[in-house]
Amino acid sequence: MRIVIAQMQHETNTFSPVPTPWEAFGNDGPFLGQAAYDAMKGTRLPMAAFIDLAEAAGAHIVTPLAAWANPSGPVDGNAYDRIRDIICEAVGQGCDAVLLDLHGAMVVADRTDDGEGTLLERIRAMAPRTPIAVSLDLHANVTERMVRNCNVIAGYKTYPHVDQYEAGQLAGSVLLRMLEGRCRPVMAWGNRPLLAHTLCENTGERPMKDFVAAARAAEAEGLLAATAFGGFQQADIHDAGISVVTVADADAEQAQRACDRILDVAWNLKEEFIYQGEPLSQALARAKKMADESGGPILLLDHADNCASGATQDTMYVLREALRVGLTGIGVGPVRDPDAVAQMIRAGVGARITLKIGGRMDMPAIRREGEPLELTGVVRAITDGEYTITGPQFHGMRCYMGRTAALDTGAAEIVVTEKNQEPWDRGVFTSVGIDPTRKRFLLLKSRMYFRPVFLPIAKGHVFCDSFGVGMSDWTQFEYRKLRRPIYPLDAFAAGHR
Ligand SMILES: [Zn+2]
After folding, report:
1. Where in the chain is the domain with CATH 3.40.50.2300?
2. 2-273 has which fold?
3. CB 138 within 8 A of CB 229
4. Alpha carbons 318 and 199: distance in angstroms, whole number
5. Ligand 1 center to residue 138 CA distance, Å?
6. How far is the CA of 139 from the centre of ligand 1 (A)?
């Protein structure tokens, strides 16, 4: 038995100015062949589960490619063609099954708004009878084309995502049972016109908790798989938003009934999927009061500039306002600005310098030009930006922030990096000698992943609304391709389904 296993993962923010070339994937390009196997084997990612399942089944494994890139703007067309062709070439050499670890929200410049559906359609045309299983991210914008061109889909059921391996295991094991003739998967797919806010998709709380629970209940009642997708909304494509995929054994009606039932749970909670913000000055005043009463650190969450949503990670609005209102003891990190890093390296550790930080990228989608912040401070540290995660998520993973420097302005200590880096771990601070537990405030460009890492050391947290291509105010984005009407951009009469 020969099984092709590959990964193609990108969450495309169509409003993001951050480019996504071939080099954005993997380590300066996707991992190919044996390197793809080595990079994935032993991780907690879906592709690792596929490899483990196939090895346990005694199959001959082919791993043409593993391609993961940080969320950013549309994928370069030539990069997509190469990725697609490498996977298709492996399928074209003949195989008994295909297991794909996909995201489900890839948009490709000048090619397609549905990178995954287009890939699957191509594979299906080449190998019409070869079973195909797919794992997807909880933030997939699932399309009818994806569902039509594979046999099994299962997605993550947690956000923050801690069950990626399990999603791969579920999709892969159903497919292997299908190969043995022990089941006959049939899928149903559907969506509701709901553009939820990812800030309201923490699976530990309502409403997402209830949405996912409905999917789990369907599995407990006998479905082969059921997934509640939150969707990725900073994407101007027709099918962005909430959706559900169910997989039943031979019974298409059972799959459809369950799909509708799970979707109704989300629709009935639609108001709760909408984040209610507050003016930045009010949020910072609240944060100051919290620190006065209980000490620090208080987390200042600059969620609009979260690079894990495709943001530039270099806006300075929140820090500028925090300094203006007189907050002190702020740890900031990381801000991406290769030019500022180079200036600090030239100045050297201990040097006092005045420089502009951040605001290097314009954001035409929200009609904003980059606005750097001029600061004066002492360069406290210069590092290669490498550290190993010691915290609960992605434990043991090596992180590469590029050359990194820390500037101390007195009121704030700012970690500046060459590359985008989600604050996955306290290592973003400790690797440059900053102890985050001793700060009064921690300004994090984070949306969800601060929870397992920084909440345990925090005395409180405040969402600080500002501008960035990851912002949650949908009215700032010009949607042209998105299906309408859709909630909350459009009103719906009571009782609408
Ligand atoms: Zn996700």
Report:
1. 2-273
2. Rossmann fold (3.40.50)
3. yes
4. 18
5. 5
6. 5
- pLDDT tens for 265-311 read 999 999 999 999 999 999 999 999 999 999 999 999 999 999 989 99
Distance from the alpha carbon of residue 103 to the mean position of ligand 1, in angstroms = 8
Q: What is the mean pLDDT of residues 424-432?
A: 94
- From the CA of 284, how far away is ligand 1's center (Å)? 28
Whole-number percent of the chain with pLDDT over 90:
92
* Interval 63-72: pLDDT, tens: 999 999 999 9
Residues by chain with Cβ below 5 Å of ion ligand 1 = 137, 139
Looking at residue 12, what DSSP letter applies? B
pLDDT at residue 497 is higher than 70:
no
Q: Helices marked H in 236-327 — which ranges? A: 252-268, 280-294, 317-324
Instruction: Using the mean position of ligand 1's atoms as its centre, give its distance from the Cα of residue 210 in Å.
Output: 18
User: Helix or strand or coil: residue 404?
Assistant: strand
Quote the ligand 1 centre to 408 CA distance (angstroms). 34
Instruction: Summarize pLDDT for 357-389 with one digit per residue, the tens.
Output: 999 999 999 999 999 999 999 999 999 999 988
- Distance between Cα 196 and ligand 1 center (Å): 13
Q: How far is the CA of 1 from the centre of ligand 1 (A)?
A: 32
The pLDDT of 454-476, averaged and rounded, is 95
450 CB contacts (<8 Å, ≥6 apart)?
299, 301, 423, 444, 461
